[in-house]
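Why does residue order matter? Because the sequence determines the fold. Keep that principle in mind as you read this record.
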Amino acid sequence: MYQYSLIWFINLYVQSIAKSRKSEDLEERIKNITEHFTISIYNNVCRSLFEKDKLLFSFLLTVGIMKGKDQIDDEVWRFLLTGGIALDNPYPNPAPDWLSDKSWGELVRASSLTNLHGLREHVRENFSKWKLIYDSVKPHEEAFPDAWSTLMGLDRMVILRCLRPDKIIPAVQDFIVENMGRTFIEPPTFDLGRSYSDSTCCAPMIFVLSPGADPMAGLLKFADGVGMGGTSIQTISLGQGQGPIAAKMISQALTDGTWVVLQNCHLAASWMPALEKICEEVIVPENTNDKFRLWLTSYPSEKFPVSILQNGIKMTNEPPKGVRVNLLRSYLNDPISDPVFFSSCQKPEMWQKLMFGLCFFHAIVQERRNFGPLGWNIPYEFNESDLRISMQQIQMFLNEYEEIPFEALTYLTGECNYGGRVTDDKDRRLLLSLLSIVYNKDIEQDKYMLAAGGDYYIPPHGPYESYIEYIRSLPITTHPEVFGLHENADISKDNQETNQLFRGVLLTLPREAGGGGKSPQETVEDLAQDILSKLPSGFDVEEVMKVYPVLYEESMNTVLKQELIRFNRLTEVVRSSLINLGKAIKGQVLMSSELEDVFNSMLMGKVPSMWAAKSYPSLKPLGSYVSDLLCRLVFFQDWVISGPPTVFWLSGFFFTQSFLTGVLQNYARKYTIPIDHIGFEFEVMKQEHTMEKMPEDGAYVRGLFLEGARWDRESLVIGESLPKILYDSLPIIWLKPGESSTFLHMNIYSCPVYKTSARRGVLSTTGHSTNYVLSIELPSDKPQKHWINRGVAALCQLDD
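Structure:
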């Protein structure tokens, strides 16, 4: 939806010449026009951007202007966005207890930048000084140790990126304030009057919608305010067959000088070309009344006509974030704000408790989306209608039954109204767990606590105003504990926002810059040679099959064969694309669009889509991806040469489910039990990496990481994460096959295992998810719900 035309841009420029401060001095006049124009562009573009993109736009604007003044070193700028690219790091990590290998690798690569020579040595010799920066609550405001305290701007942000990427967003804001002024990080608030005064009768006004935002009430109120209310404004919600009616409305309004509002344009994709024609040919100055306005509302859609977007005035109005604002919105909107509905129940005390509880639940499920995969595997669009229908059902059940039927309410709210949107079974488990906080008998108590910490409880029974007053007294920012998450979730959320910002900037960048004075071609060519020199030749599957033939007693031989075929397919694509890329750079073959994609991806340190299509799921950047691939190939090479390992590296498999089925199959055939009667029990061992010998039955596996919790090696149960440590590696786990009917499932947490931290997968043709592997049962001394709300899962690989 972000489309702007040159004519629109020139109009703004002409307005700036007219409206900026006049001066006789030419230098000052030019300065005044430039300042006025910059702010005008910022305000006009920000009006049409979603919140998540406003900082990105400011950052690009700042860097763009500084590049024009030659104040930006391209090499540093690219490093800040990508973290540099290298396959291996020859320097050992000086402080592995707090400095991650990813951070150390970035520090080593940063040391080659002009202003950061010697950084690697300084960190190695003074790591205790740097640890203070790492441990600081506000590292972006701290002075760096020794000579590095004088660093400014992007150089300073590069070091911050290496040590504490979660604080890049506030550092970017400080950078913009220093170079452009505070105006550029405080986007203008939504102002219908201002947008209206900037408009003409021929330019449509477009509301770009986001979940939970409905501009209609505000628009009708504004129309009344400027004397266009009542019959002077007509609205129609587009859908099947509504197009011709809307066209008739527009032609009538053109002559009468009234307003027309077309809602939900994204639902009438087939009628959009007709609307585009109307805007271009019918709504022209000579036959349009000056008072006429066309208002459109639409969710982002690629079917929306570009010409309307370029020539119209676009506005976004997103609902503010946070539990407090969300609760307030529910209470100030229909139906709760209606006094009749608020007091329309025969059990008023219980009714208002459940109503408040439900609004709290609604706020929690919506706000958890901000935490990415820790919050929900798939971000669902829960909306006001889910809340409204659930509320009406509470009212109905309270009026009709003596006892409150919590089971029926849980089913209707959790499985139908909200649950009807939920497609992932782990998300459904979480939804029901969050709902059980509200829908349970204890809610009848006074001051029933809704979350840890003491701030959030169900307020005592009272008039409508007392609830509003209580909501206004809640904290403005919400601690992760309120959502049931660990405080580390804030770090995960900040890291995610940093990645999103950098990804957004990279999408807008041209390709010309190279690193260290090298041209992009040289950079990519060196990298391609480096990868090719490390990539071993393919496995000889036929030779391997002679040593490991298909046997009834040993399914692992079949698993090995299938894995080698898959890895051969991947390494062949990697090898041929790199060889062809080398030839294309030299001009010996044509640079096809696929090869160009490989080139651009390698320049940005991303895995090319050509490889990803033949690869196992991975979110790693290019350097780590190649190192990980090489480790997997070594794991299988050792298996081929030395026989099956005593401990299998679970993350190393291409198709993990076939390995698990192989383990079960061996057991089933050994003891002649049908395979669908057996499952796994899980025992977490004391050993971290190696075992003396293979188990009698089942298999030892390693390589999993817990997210959202840690493995308590003293008490041998799952425990709370340590501050700032987002992932904890699990020791070796023994997968013990047995008859499922005899398993106890006592004092455990059923922990899902995913291949990557995205957690979200799609169902493949084999009937398996592309991301979910299995659930392992980990011993726990807390109820299962605690860990479900924490979003605890095990991952086969991290993202770095």
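The chain has five domains: 74-185, 192-316, 323-483, 513-619+636-642, 645-800.
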